[in-house]
Amino acid sequence: MAHLFNRNVLLGVSGGIAAYKSAEVVRQLQEQGATVRVIMTHGAQEFITPLTLQALSGHPVHTQLLDEQAEQGMGHIELARWADLLLIAPATADLIARLAAGRADDLLTTVSLATPAPVLLAPAMNQQMWRDQATAANIETLQRRDLHFIGPAAGEQACGDIGPGRMEQPPAIAAAAAALFHTGALAGKKVVITAGPTRELLDPVRYISNHSSGKMGYALAQAAIDAGAVTTLVSGPVSLDPPAHAKCHRVESAQEMLDSCLDLVADCDIFIACAAVADYRPAQIEGQKIKKGAEEISLQLVKNPDIVNAVAAGESAPFTVGFAAETQNVLGYARDKMQRKGLNMIIANDVSDHGIGFNSNENEVTVLWETGEQALSRAGKPAIARQIMGLIAKATKN
Ligand code: PMT
């Protein structure tokens, strides 16, 4: 199964003999469906050439932190944000020590600090170095910071020693990368997600709507599927294909979205309202196209039903999550909305910044619940969606 389909994997290669296997790691990741870009440390280039990894990945290999040309193409912060996963294979003892110390003295360590994506390390070193207390302490530090590890395996080493320290085989590394996305944290749960805009008809050819593209809601659906949930999208009109394995109900107006949601939430554990629902609709839909005539015309609007409120107020309501798209006092208004609408959780989205929010590829949000909050720093919508789903899984764990 292509468990890394549509995923951006940034492969970091540090300088050990196992670096020669990184070519096969690229292939295995691609076989799982990933798009792969590569960063090599100076040491790694002693073992395998950037040209090899460029040819296999189909992208220029990144090697320098201070490289004007590379920064003009895809700078190190963009690279850090591009990644859905940073995989470092091999991760040498030195690289592990530098990560544990929080160093940012080359491109790979800098990107490791700058990425909001999960980080997976495949250690490779001499068995005595692996057993050394300093390495053990560094690994413990990184595990406490939620970095993930695959291996090392034990066996005969390039130096002739026998013991633990061999880098895991590339298929096992790619499988560990895929397993990070397919968490099973919501296995057995049913999740309903609204996404996209609604359209409120004025006449047969015109409507009121907004700029929601559906990207955030569809990313949430993918994250819910990855977490093992049976996932249903109730989607306004967007130009995206729903994720494979999601059921999708297409609707146009707020009223249609409400009807669809009320049907579905009777059998649902988690409801996430990401759609940008029109608060008002025209009081009447003209049967014929409104003709141009008067210099001014007035439009009478009536309030639409509040979908997330109706779901949260229902008998045996699911765990209900809303979004708050705000342009000022973002956290204050979001917390107020959570309380007024009776929600278990709300995602505060500052939509005054055009780089995040409506129709952007990235987002930056704060997740609020009754007793706490967590800020999620700027990242691609798929990465934000995975983090939101992780918090929902935690909050709904029995
Ligand atoms: O689709 P994208 O281009 O990726 O953009 C994502 C997004 C900006 C649309 C998304 O991140 C977001 O913020 N969605 C909520 C947009 C919104 O309408 O927010 P609001 O603050 O007006 O509404 C608060 C909550 O009530 C939302 O959960 C909304 O879905 C819900 N609502 C609002 C009105 C209504 N009549 N019924 C509702 O259920």
TrEMBL record:
<dbReference type="InterPro" id="IPR007085">
    <property type="entry name" value="DNA/pantothenate-metab_flavo_C"/>
</dbReference>
<comment type="function">
    <text>Catalyzes two sequential steps in the biosynthesis of coenzyme A. In the first step cysteine is conjugated to 4'-phosphopantothenate to form 4-phosphopantothenoylcysteine. In the second step the latter compound is decarboxylated to form 4'-phosphopantotheine.</text>
</comment>
<feature type="domain" description="Flavoprotein">
    <location>
        <begin position="8"/>
        <end position="175"/>
    </location>
</feature>
<keyword id="KW-0288">FMN</keyword>
<feature type="domain" description="DNA/pantothenate metabolism flavoprotein C-terminal">
    <location>
        <begin position="186"/>
        <end position="394"/>
    </location>
</feature>
<keyword id="KW-0436">Ligase</keyword>
<feature type="region of interest" description="Phosphopantothenate--cysteine ligase">
    <location>
        <begin position="191"/>
        <end position="398"/>
    </location>
</feature>
<feature type="binding site">
    <location>
        <position position="323"/>
    </location>
    <ligand>
        <name>CTP</name>
    </ligand>
</feature>
<dbReference type="InterPro" id="IPR036551">
    <property type="entry name" value="Flavin_trans-like"/>
</dbReference>
<feature type="binding site">
    <location>
        <begin position="305"/>
        <end position="308"/>
    </location>
    <ligand>
        <name>CTP</name>
    </ligand>
</feature>
<keyword id="KW-0210">Decarboxylase</keyword>
<dbReference type="InterPro" id="IPR005252">
    <property type="entry name" value="CoaBC"/>
</dbReference>
<keyword id="KW-0456">Lyase</keyword>
<comment type="pathway">
    <text>Cofactor biosynthesis; coenzyme A biosynthesis; CoA from (R)-pantothenate: step 3/5.</text>
</comment>
<comment type="function">
    <text>Catalyzes two steps in the biosynthesis of coenzyme A. In the first step cysteine is conjugated to 4'-phosphopantothenate to form 4-phosphopantothenoylcysteine, in the latter compound is decarboxylated to form 4'-phosphopantotheine.</text>
</comment>
<dbReference type="InterPro" id="IPR003382">
    <property type="entry name" value="Flavoprotein"/>
</dbReference>
<feature type="binding site">
    <location>
        <position position="341"/>
    </location>
    <ligand>
        <name>CTP</name>
    </ligand>
</feature>
<keyword id="KW-0285">Flavoprotein</keyword>
<feature type="region of interest" description="Phosphopantothenoylcysteine decarboxylase">
    <location>
        <begin position="1"/>
        <end position="190"/>
    </location>
</feature>
<dbReference type="Pfam" id="PF02441">
    <property type="entry name" value="Flavoprotein"/>
</dbReference>
<feature type="binding site">
    <location>
        <position position="337"/>
    </location>
    <ligand>
        <name>CTP</name>
    </ligand>
</feature>
<comment type="pathway">
    <text>Cofactor biosynthesis; coenzyme A biosynthesis; CoA from (R)-pantothenate: step 2/5.</text>
</comment>
<keyword id="KW-0479">Metal-binding</keyword>
<keyword id="KW-0460">Magnesium</keyword>
<feature type="active site" description="Proton donor">
    <location>
        <position position="159"/>
    </location>
</feature>
<feature type="binding site">
    <location>
        <position position="289"/>
    </location>
    <ligand>
        <name>CTP</name>
    </ligand>
</feature>
<feature type="binding site">
    <location>
        <position position="279"/>
    </location>
    <ligand>
        <name>CTP</name>
    </ligand>
</feature>
<protein>
    <recommendedName>
        <fullName>Coenzyme A biosynthesis bifunctional protein CoaBC</fullName>
        <ecNumber>4.1.1.36</ecNumber>
        <ecNumber>6.3.2.5</ecNumber>
    </recommendedName>
</protein>
<comment type="similarity">
    <text>In the N-terminal section; belongs to the HFCD (homo-oligomeric flavin containing Cys decarboxylase) superfamily.</text>
</comment>
<dbReference type="Pfam" id="PF04127">
    <property type="entry name" value="DFP"/>
</dbReference>
<dbReference type="GO" id="GO:0004633">
    <property type="term" value="F:phosphopantothenoylcysteine decarboxylase activity"/>
</dbReference>
<dbReference type="GO" id="GO:0004632">
    <property type="term" value="F:phosphopantothenate--cysteine ligase activity"/>
</dbReference>
<keyword id="KW-0511">Multifunctional enzyme</keyword>
<comment type="similarity">
    <text>In the C-terminal section; belongs to the PPC synthetase family.</text>
</comment>
<dbReference type="InterPro" id="IPR035929">
    <property type="entry name" value="CoaB-like_sf"/>
</dbReference>
